[in-house]
Amino acid sequence: MGCDGGTIPKRHELVKGPKKVEKVDKDAELVAQWNYCTLSQEILRRPIVACELGRLYNKDAVIEFLLDKSSEKALGKAASHIKSIKNVTELRLSDNPAWEGDKGNTKGDKHDDLQRARFICPVVGLEMNGRHRFCFLRCCGCVFSERALKEIKAEVCHTCGTAFQEDDVIVLNGSKEDVEVLKSRMEERRLRAKLEKKTKKSKAAESVSKSDVSEETPGPSKMKTGKPEETNLDTREKKTNSAPKSAAHGITSGKAAKRSIADSEESEAYKSLFTTHSSAKRSKEESAHWVTHTSYCF
C-alpha cells in the first residue's frame, strides 16, 4: 500500500490536525489601506476623497460606483453607505518632499521602502504611512496627524483657518472601535438632516397657506360700510334725479340762445351771419326741387 522503496512517512503526513489560521502581514495591510483605493483596488491618485467612516477612495471610482449600482459588484459592499457624492469629502493632502516614487526605479532593481509615504502632516511632519494615526476635517478636507491636533489645541483649522467641531474630526483607516463610533455619528447626522428638511417643508407650506388667506380677505380700506342694497338704491335715485334736470337745462339754454340772438341789439351785418336772419330765408322759386332739396343746396 505504498511506502515502498524504504520511505518512512512522518506523523504530520498521516495525521491531519486543525488548520492554522493564516496571519495577515501587517506591513502589506498598511500598504493596501494607505496606498490603494478601497473601492477599485487601484493606486490612489488625486483627487482623493474619504468617506464618513475614514476610508480612502479615488474620486473617479466613487463617481462610477454611484452611476452604475449593479448587484454584480462585490466591492460595492465597502461603499454601500455612500448614497451621493455629498457623502464624501475631497482631501487636501501635503506632499512628502522625500518621496521619489517610481522616478529612481527605472531599471526595477531598486528596493522599495514601504515606510516612505507620499503624504505627510503639514504641522508636525509625520509621514502618512499607517504607523501614526491621521484624521481629516469634514468641513474643509484638510488632513493632519492626531498628534498635531492634540499638541496644538485650537477650534480653527491649522492651514485654511475654518472653524470646526469635534464631530467634524474623522479618523482615517481607524480600528473597529473607531469605525463603530464614526458609523453612529454618521447615522445621527443623517437623521438630523432629514428632520431639518421636514421642518423646512412644513414652514414653507405654512407660509404659502398664510399668503393665500391674506389675498382672499380684503383689508379695512376695501371694506364697505352699511348694507349693499341701500347703497345701490341711493346711487340709482341720484342718477334718475340728475338726468331730467340736465335735459331741461339743455332745452332752456338752447331757447335762450336763439332769443338772445334774434332780440339782440346787434347790427344787421352781425345778425346776417346766423340762419335765423331774414336774409337767410329763401323763397319758393329759389328753393330746389323737392326730390333733391336740402337745406344747404343753393
Automatic annotation (TrEMBL):
<feature type="compositionally biased region" description="Basic and acidic residues">
    <location>
        <begin position="226"/>
        <end position="240"/>
    </location>
</feature>
<dbReference type="InterPro" id="IPR006735">
    <property type="entry name" value="Rtf2"/>
</dbReference>
<comment type="subunit">
    <text>Interacts with DDI2; probably also interacts with DDI1.</text>
</comment>
<comment type="function">
    <text>Replication termination factor which is a component of the elongating replisome. Required for ATR pathway signaling upon DNA damage and has a positive activity during DNA replication. Might function to facilitate fork pausing at replication fork barriers like the rDNA. May be globally required to stimulate ATR signaling after the fork stalls or encounters a lesion. Interacts with nascent DNA.</text>
</comment>
<dbReference type="InterPro" id="IPR027799">
    <property type="entry name" value="Rtf2_RING-finger"/>
</dbReference>
<dbReference type="Pfam" id="PF04641">
    <property type="entry name" value="Rtf2"/>
</dbReference>
<dbReference type="GO" id="GO:0005634">
    <property type="term" value="C:nucleus"/>
</dbReference>
<feature type="region of interest" description="Disordered">
    <location>
        <begin position="193"/>
        <end position="270"/>
    </location>
</feature>
<protein>
    <recommendedName>
        <fullName>Replication termination factor 2</fullName>
    </recommendedName>
</protein>
<comment type="similarity">
    <text>Belongs to the rtf2 family.</text>
</comment>
<dbReference type="GO" id="GO:0006274">
    <property type="term" value="P:DNA replication termination"/>
</dbReference>
